[in-house]
Amino acid sequence: MIQLRPSDARGQADHGWLQAKHSFSFADYYDSREMGWGALRVINEDRVAPGTGFPMHGHRDMEIVTYILSGALEHKDSLGNGGGIRRGEVQRMSAGKGVLHSEFNPAADEETHLLQIWIEPALRGGRASYDQHRLFTPDNASQWVLVASPDGRDGSAVIQQDALLLAAHLGPAEAVRHTLAPGRLAYVHVIRGQVSLNGVALAAGDGAKIADESELAFQGGAEPGEFLLFDLPPAA
């Protein structure tokens, strides 16, 4: 089963300084049919205006991954961490029993475009922690880049869930494949360009819920495509 989630079906929010699109129910956007997919709870596409950002606020019991599409983001938290991330870097925060943090666009004349991803942890009430590092050159093509995993292999960010987050860039003649173990779920989010999944065409902003599939075949479209794949544990 591959269930398309078209870009224009996502929730939207205009806060002036923040333009947001929500793949799943979040804040003032609520759809009882879109409460997440397995352990994947949030994919927010945010555009943060120059010199603005999210003031200090709290989270708990969530694995939060920030994937920068353009611009930069400054982070500070109650654990004493601070620093900036740019394109090609990933930020991971395990909220655990609770953490406060702020996120800010430090640029005077450039918006920050990002995806913020929330994945539910396997166990609640854990220790809060934070990590950020460079993953890859953003224009790597026709190969998977492991962004996050439970064991940090291949230089990926460590998350407290049996889930994999992978990224790929495909040109028109390029392809990648991924095998899903029996019972596992998957979700695809297209960042830019075009890609097909098992013959289903996807464009920028589109997503797809995947269940009861074993082989996922991705083919580049007329426009170079960048996308994320979530390999998720079976639904509880």
From TrEMBL:
Binds 1 Fe cation per subunit. Pfam families: Pirin (PF02678), Pirin_C_2 (PF17954). Its cofactor is Fe cation. Signal peptide: none annotated. Keywords: Iron, Metal-binding. Residues 146-232 form the Quercetin 2,3-dioxygenase C-terminal cupin domain. The keyword tRNA-binding does not apply. Residues 8-119 form the Pirin N-terminal domain. Fe cation binds at H57, H59, H101, E103. GO terms for molecular function: metal ion binding. It comes from the Bacteria. Belongs to the pirin family. This is Pirin-related protein. It comes from Azospira oryzae (strain ATCC BAA-33 / DSM 13638 / PS).
